[in-house]
Amino acid sequence: MAEGFAAVWFSTPDGRSIYAHTAPDRVLEHQQMGARYAVHEMVVKTYADRLHIAALLERLQSGLMRPLTEDEYRLEVSNIERLERFGAS
Questions:
Q1: What is the pLDDT along the chain (89 residues), one digit of tens a residue?
Q2: Residue ranges of E strands in 1-89
Q3: For the chain, which residues make up each domain, given as ranges?
Q4: What percent of the residues of the chain are helix, what percent strand, and what percent coil, each to the nearest 5?
């Protein structure tokens, strides 16, 4: 990890999107949609990607997202992964 970087885990207030920001250029999202879920991995490749990650972190700082500990994140991910995954064969 980059010097001075600290991983953060957070979710939307309703818990339908759960995020792990584990590197300066990477965010992993588990998103629940009805009775299924999808996983999105964003790796910064463009300036727009960097702005999207910055906007997520600004929402977290402003209280619009719910902060999680790493253990809470793992528990919420294990709960969402009990659902059927979009695109799974």
A1: 457 899 999 999 999 999 999 999 999 999 999 999 999 999 999 999 999 999 999 999 999 999 999 999 999 999 999 999 987 65
A2: 8-11, 17-23, 26-33, 36-43, 66-68, 84-85
A3: 8-85
A4: 30, 35, 35
Question: What would the two tokens of residue 60 be?
Answer: 């977290």
What's at 74, amino acid-wise? Answer: R
* Edge-to-edge strand ranges of the sheet holding 8-11: 66-68, 8-11, 17-23, 26-33, 36-43, 84-85
The tokens for 65 are: 């997202």
User: What's the start-to-end Cα distance of the chain, in Å?
Assistant: 33
